[in-house]
Amino acid sequence: MNNISLLYTLGLGTLLAFILFFSFYLALKWEGKKAAFVTIMAMWLLYFPLAYLFWPGIDTFAIHFVFYTMTGYGLGIVTNVRSTRMRLEGEETQGGWFHWAPALIVTFFLLLTLQEANLITKASAYKPGIVMQDFREKENQYNDYQKQLAKQKQRGWKITGGWDTLPLRNVSKPFVIKATDKVGNAITEAKVTLALLSTADTDKDMHLELPETSEGVYAKDITLPLYGEWSILVTVTKGDDVHVIKGQIEVKPERK
Fold first, then answer.
1. CA spacing 20 to 30 A to 100: which of 91, 197, 228, 231?
2. Positions of the chain with pLDDT lower than 50, given as ranges
3. Judging by DSSP bridges, how do beta strands 158-162 and 173-180 pair with one another?
4. For position 30, what pLDDT does the model report?
5. CA dist 99 to 75, 80, 85, 93, 152, Å?
6. Would strands 212-214 and 206-210 be described as parallel, antiparallel, or unpaired?
7. How open is the CA angle 221-251-231, to the nearest 5 degrees?
Protein backbone atom coordinates (compact mmCIF):
# COMPACT_ATOMS: atom_id res chain seq x y z
CA MET A 1 0.00 0.00 0.00
CA ASN A 2 2.99 2.34 0.54
CA ASN A 3 3.56 2.43 -3.22
CA ILE A 4 -0.04 3.40 -3.99
CA SER A 5 -0.95 7.08 -4.19
CA LEU A 6 -3.20 8.38 -1.41
CA LEU A 7 -5.44 9.95 -4.02
CA TYR A 8 -6.12 6.51 -5.47
CA THR A 9 -6.82 4.78 -2.15
CA LEU A 10 -8.99 7.63 -0.90
CA GLY A 11 -10.81 7.94 -4.22
CA LEU A 12 -11.51 4.23 -4.67
CA GLY A 13 -12.49 3.87 -1.01
CA THR A 14 -14.88 6.80 -1.23
CA LEU A 15 -16.43 5.39 -4.41
CA LEU A 16 -16.94 2.05 -2.64
CA ALA A 17 -18.54 3.86 0.32
CA PHE A 18 -20.97 5.60 -2.04
CA ILE A 19 -21.86 2.31 -3.72
CA LEU A 20 -22.45 0.57 -0.38
CA PHE A 21 -24.49 3.42 1.05
CA PHE A 22 -26.84 3.79 -1.89
CA SER A 23 -27.19 0.03 -2.17
CA PHE A 24 -28.54 0.02 1.37
CA TYR A 25 -30.44 3.30 1.04
CA LEU A 26 -32.09 2.87 -2.37
CA ALA A 27 -32.09 -0.87 -3.03
CA LEU A 28 -32.86 -2.09 0.50
CA LYS A 29 -34.86 1.03 1.46
CA TRP A 30 -32.96 1.51 4.71
CA GLU A 31 -33.05 4.82 6.54
CA GLY A 32 -30.08 7.10 6.00
CA LYS A 33 -28.72 6.64 9.54
CA LYS A 34 -28.82 2.86 9.34
CA ALA A 35 -27.30 2.81 5.86
CA ALA A 36 -24.53 5.19 7.03
CA PHE A 37 -23.75 3.10 10.12
CA VAL A 38 -23.47 -0.17 8.18
CA THR A 39 -21.42 1.54 5.45
CA ILE A 40 -18.92 2.92 7.99
CA MET A 41 -18.63 -0.46 9.71
CA ALA A 42 -18.06 -2.19 6.36
CA MET A 43 -15.34 0.30 5.38
CA TRP A 44 -13.59 -0.18 8.74
CA LEU A 45 -13.74 -3.96 8.44
CA LEU A 46 -12.18 -3.68 4.98
CA TYR A 47 -9.50 -1.09 5.72
CA PHE A 48 -8.29 -2.06 9.21
CA PRO A 49 -6.90 -5.49 8.19
CA LEU A 50 -5.18 -3.95 5.15
CA ALA A 51 -3.68 -1.20 7.31
CA TYR A 52 -2.45 -3.80 9.78
CA LEU A 53 -0.81 -5.92 7.09
CA PHE A 54 0.63 -2.98 5.13
CA TRP A 55 1.09 -0.30 7.81
CA PRO A 56 1.25 3.06 5.97
CA GLY A 57 2.12 5.29 8.94
CA ILE A 58 -0.14 6.99 11.46
CA ASP A 59 -0.80 10.10 9.32
CA THR A 60 -1.94 8.07 6.34
CA PHE A 61 -4.02 5.75 8.53
CA ALA A 62 -5.73 8.71 10.21
CA ILE A 63 -6.58 10.35 6.89
CA HIS A 64 -8.18 7.15 5.55
CA PHE A 65 -10.05 6.61 8.82
CA VAL A 66 -11.48 10.16 8.82
CA PHE A 67 -12.25 10.21 5.12
CA TYR A 68 -14.09 6.88 5.04
CA THR A 69 -15.98 7.70 8.24
CA MET A 70 -16.97 11.20 7.13
CA THR A 71 -18.13 9.92 3.75
CA GLY A 72 -20.60 7.48 5.32
CA TYR A 73 -21.60 9.89 8.06
CA GLY A 74 -22.05 12.75 5.60
CA LEU A 75 -24.28 10.70 3.31
CA GLY A 76 -26.33 9.74 6.34
CA ILE A 77 -26.99 13.22 7.60
CA VAL A 78 -27.59 14.83 4.21
CA THR A 79 -30.23 12.21 3.31
CA ASN A 80 -31.84 12.22 6.75
CA VAL A 81 -34.00 15.23 5.87
CA ARG A 82 -35.65 13.32 3.04
CA SER A 83 -36.32 10.28 5.23
CA THR A 84 -37.82 12.49 7.95
CA ARG A 85 -40.10 14.22 5.47
CA MET A 86 -41.24 10.91 4.04
CA ARG A 87 -42.26 9.73 7.51
CA LEU A 88 -44.09 12.98 8.28
CA GLU A 89 -45.62 13.77 4.89
CA GLY A 90 -45.75 10.40 3.18
CA GLU A 91 -43.89 9.12 0.16
CA GLU A 92 -45.45 11.79 -2.06
CA THR A 93 -43.21 14.48 -0.59
CA GLN A 94 -41.37 16.63 -3.10
CA GLY A 95 -38.73 17.83 -0.62
CA GLY A 96 -35.08 17.85 -1.49
CA TRP A 97 -32.82 14.88 -0.86
CA PHE A 98 -30.64 16.77 1.60
CA HIS A 99 -30.18 20.08 3.35
CA TRP A 100 -27.45 22.35 2.09
CA ALA A 101 -26.03 23.28 5.53
CA PRO A 102 -24.87 19.81 6.70
CA ALA A 103 -23.78 19.01 3.15
CA LEU A 104 -21.57 22.12 3.15
CA ILE A 105 -20.00 21.20 6.52
CA VAL A 106 -19.23 17.63 5.46
CA THR A 107 -17.81 18.82 2.13
CA PHE A 108 -15.53 21.27 3.95
CA PHE A 109 -14.04 18.55 6.15
CA LEU A 110 -13.60 16.18 3.22
CA LEU A 111 -11.80 18.86 1.22
CA LEU A 112 -9.59 19.65 4.23
CA THR A 113 -8.68 15.97 4.57
CA LEU A 114 -7.99 15.76 0.83
CA GLN A 115 -5.60 18.72 1.11
CA GLU A 116 -3.66 16.95 3.88
CA ALA A 117 -3.50 13.83 1.72
CA ASN A 118 -2.10 15.91 -1.14
CA LEU A 119 0.68 17.24 1.11
CA ILE A 120 1.74 13.72 2.13
CA THR A 121 1.55 12.52 -1.48
CA LYS A 122 3.90 15.33 -2.60
CA ALA A 123 6.29 14.65 0.27
CA SER A 124 6.39 10.97 -0.77
CA ALA A 125 7.45 11.55 -4.37
CA TYR A 126 10.35 9.48 -5.73
CA LYS A 127 13.79 11.03 -6.13
CA PRO A 128 16.90 9.47 -7.71
CA GLY A 129 18.35 6.73 -5.55
CA ILE A 130 16.22 7.15 -2.47
CA VAL A 131 12.49 7.48 -1.77
CA MET A 132 11.64 10.77 -0.15
CA GLN A 133 9.08 9.70 2.41
CA ASP A 134 8.62 10.97 5.96
CA PHE A 135 5.12 10.82 7.36
CA ARG A 136 6.22 12.67 10.49
CA GLU A 137 6.54 15.86 8.42
CA LYS A 138 4.04 18.48 9.59
CA GLU A 139 2.57 21.25 7.49
CA ASN A 140 4.71 24.06 8.95
CA GLN A 141 7.84 21.96 8.38
CA TYR A 142 6.63 21.02 4.91
CA ASN A 143 6.81 24.64 3.70
CA ASP A 144 10.46 24.96 4.83
CA TYR A 145 11.14 21.56 3.29
CA GLN A 146 9.80 22.77 -0.07
CA LYS A 147 12.10 25.81 0.05
CA GLN A 148 15.04 23.50 0.75
CA LEU A 149 14.05 21.34 -2.22
CA ALA A 150 13.94 24.42 -4.47
CA LYS A 151 17.50 25.36 -3.44
CA GLN A 152 18.69 21.80 -3.99
CA LYS A 153 17.09 21.68 -7.44
CA GLN A 154 18.78 24.92 -8.42
CA ARG A 155 22.12 23.66 -7.07
CA GLY A 156 21.77 20.53 -9.17
CA TRP A 157 23.69 18.11 -7.00
CA LYS A 158 23.04 14.42 -7.59
CA ILE A 159 23.10 12.29 -4.46
CA THR A 160 22.48 8.63 -5.25
CA GLY A 161 23.02 5.26 -3.68
CA GLY A 162 22.09 3.48 -0.48
CA TRP A 163 22.08 -0.31 -0.14
CA ASP A 164 22.49 -2.26 -3.37
CA THR A 165 19.95 -4.81 -2.07
CA LEU A 166 17.38 -4.70 0.71
CA PRO A 167 19.12 -4.95 4.10
CA LEU A 168 18.51 -7.90 6.41
CA ARG A 169 18.19 -7.80 10.17
CA ASN A 170 21.52 -8.18 12.00
CA VAL A 171 23.44 -8.51 8.71
CA SER A 172 26.14 -5.94 8.00
CA LYS A 173 25.87 -4.42 4.51
CA PRO A 174 27.65 -1.43 2.98
CA PHE A 175 25.62 1.78 2.64
CA VAL A 176 27.21 3.73 -0.22
CA ILE A 177 26.45 7.29 -1.30
CA LYS A 178 27.82 8.90 -4.48
CA ALA A 179 27.76 12.70 -4.67
CA THR A 180 28.30 14.71 -7.87
CA ASP A 181 27.67 18.35 -8.75
CA LYS A 182 25.59 19.82 -11.52
CA VAL A 183 28.11 19.03 -14.25
CA GLY A 184 28.94 15.56 -12.95
CA ASN A 185 32.14 16.32 -11.02
CA ALA A 186 32.64 14.39 -7.80
CA ILE A 187 31.88 16.32 -4.60
CA THR A 188 34.94 15.60 -2.49
CA GLU A 189 35.84 16.38 1.13
CA ALA A 190 32.19 16.83 2.09
CA LYS A 191 30.67 15.91 5.42
CA VAL A 192 28.05 13.17 4.91
CA THR A 193 25.87 12.16 7.83
CA LEU A 194 23.27 9.41 7.94
CA ALA A 195 20.33 9.14 10.34
CA LEU A 196 18.39 5.86 10.54
CA LEU A 197 15.14 6.14 12.51
CA SER A 198 13.23 3.04 13.53
CA THR A 199 9.43 3.22 13.52
CA ALA A 200 9.34 0.27 15.93
CA ASP A 201 11.75 1.44 18.66
CA THR A 202 13.21 4.95 18.82
CA ASP A 203 15.93 3.72 21.16
CA LYS A 204 17.43 1.90 18.15
CA ASP A 205 17.81 5.11 16.09
CA MET A 206 21.30 5.58 14.66
CA HIS A 207 23.23 8.72 13.70
CA LEU A 208 26.41 8.06 11.73
CA GLU A 209 29.00 9.86 9.63
CA LEU A 210 29.99 8.27 6.33
CA PRO A 211 33.73 8.55 5.53
CA GLU A 212 34.87 9.28 1.99
CA THR A 213 36.24 6.04 0.55
CA SER A 214 37.07 7.45 -2.90
CA GLU A 215 36.43 10.70 -4.78
CA GLY A 216 32.78 11.62 -4.21
CA VAL A 217 31.95 8.22 -2.71
CA TYR A 218 31.02 7.90 0.98
CA ALA A 219 30.35 4.53 2.58
CA LYS A 220 30.05 2.60 5.80
CA ASP A 221 29.01 -0.93 6.77
CA ILE A 222 25.72 -0.76 8.66
CA THR A 223 23.71 -3.34 10.59
CA LEU A 224 20.01 -2.79 11.22
CA PRO A 225 18.90 -4.58 14.41
CA LEU A 226 15.11 -4.57 13.96
CA TYR A 227 12.48 -5.66 11.47
CA GLY A 228 10.09 -3.03 10.20
CA GLU A 229 10.32 0.36 8.53
CA TRP A 230 13.31 2.67 8.89
CA SER A 231 13.31 6.33 7.91
CA ILE A 232 16.52 7.51 6.23
CA LEU A 233 18.02 11.00 6.33
CA VAL A 234 21.21 11.69 4.36
CA THR A 235 22.80 15.13 4.75
CA VAL A 236 25.69 16.25 2.53
CA THR A 237 27.46 19.42 3.66
CA LYS A 238 30.11 21.17 1.57
CA GLY A 239 31.04 24.65 2.79
CA ASP A 240 27.79 26.61 3.15
CA ASP A 241 25.83 24.24 0.90
CA VAL A 242 23.63 21.65 2.58
CA HIS A 243 21.88 18.93 0.58
CA VAL A 244 19.30 16.72 2.31
CA ILE A 245 17.80 13.49 1.00
CA LYS A 246 15.06 11.59 2.80
CA GLY A 247 14.01 8.01 2.33
CA GLN A 248 12.44 4.93 3.83
CA ILE A 249 13.20 1.25 3.72
CA GLU A 250 11.65 -1.86 5.24
CA VAL A 251 13.54 -4.75 6.80
CA LYS A 252 11.48 -7.89 6.21
CA PRO A 253 11.90 -11.35 7.74
CA GLU A 254 13.83 -13.71 5.48
CA ARG A 255 11.76 -16.32 3.69
CA LYS A 256 12.79 -19.90 4.40
1. 91
2. 2-3, 92-95, 97, 123-139
3. antiparallel
4. 87
5. 11, 9, 12, 15, 49
6. unpaired
7. 75
